Amino acid sequence: MQKSNGINVKTAILLGALFCAFILVLGFSLSKTAGAPANKDCLLPKVVGSCRAAIPRFYYNSNSGKCEEFTYGGCDGNANNFQTEEECKKACHAACLYLTAGYPANEGCLLPMKVGPCRAAWPSYYYNSKSEKCEEFTYGGCDANANNFQTEEECKKACL
């Protein structure tokens, strides 16, 4: 196992992830009390809308942990809809991503497996940072985190 200044690298990653989670929770609480929009908007699903325009936009995909392009219809969207990739990243990417440079580029790969409270039974994959492998689990269908992939290949591409 690699060590950096006497600290186990996995321990450093875990501490960084815990710090990030604390900052994000604190940030959500502060943004609610200040009346500013919370980044929880980034967890909303992609909504194309009911109109028929073809407007290129970006949304934060909480499964991949990345801002991705989609075609917006022009109406009936939600707050997870950005004109540029840069706007999306600024609003949705945790600054903590950069604390783990040299480790999985997708900060979601460091999150624990999350089945969620719903009762669906969808085969999914997550990156297990202890075994350093993508492993299968049964996803409940809602309230996923960014460490949730439809296929083992998607998991490997994002996390290995």
TrEMBL record:
Its main location: other. One of its GO terms (cellular component) is nematocyst. PROSITE patterns: BPTI_KUNITZ_1 (PS00280), BPTI_KUNITZ_2 (PS50279). The keyword Disulfide bond applies. InterPro entries: Kunitz_BPTI, Kunitz_BPTI_sf, Prtase_inh_Kunz-CS, TFPI/VKTCI-like. SUPFAM superfamilies: BPTI-like. One of its GO terms (molecular function) is serine-type endopeptidase inhibitor activity. Belongs to the venom Kunitz-type family. Sea anemone type 2 potassium channel toxin subfamily. This is BPTI/Kunitz domain-containing protein-like. The gene is LOC116302195.
